[in-house]
Design goal:
Blueprint: H1 5-8, E1 12-25, E2 28-37, E3 54-72, E4 83-91, E5 94-99, E6 102-115
Antiparallel strand pairs: 1-2, 1-4, 2-3, 3-6, 4-5, 5-6
Length: about 120
Amino acid sequence: MGKSIASRFENIDIIASVLRAVIINDDELTLEMDFCLEEDHPEYETPGEGEECCFHPGLLKFAGISKLSLERAEGAASSSRRFAIQSFNIEGTKFDMACEWGTIHLQARSIRVLTE
């Protein structure tokens, strides 16, 4: 049996994590992330000098999207490499996130959390 979505974020501080990129392909949406790992996460390493978090690259992949709303924030610099997250919510097949990049609202058949 697969893990619940909530358990896949165990020991990840999602609000301290950052969005790196939004990629849209057909009925899929991929969010490239730098996840902020907490000390109890198996991949955790002590942050280096001047770093606030143990960042670890990962992906949020949404497939079978039935509803999608992307609203790019005015003034969101296209040259920015990392976008801070203000709110993040997954309930069943629904996902909502607000960040410096903008807002993302969707409903998808499949939501996967992948770490590299």
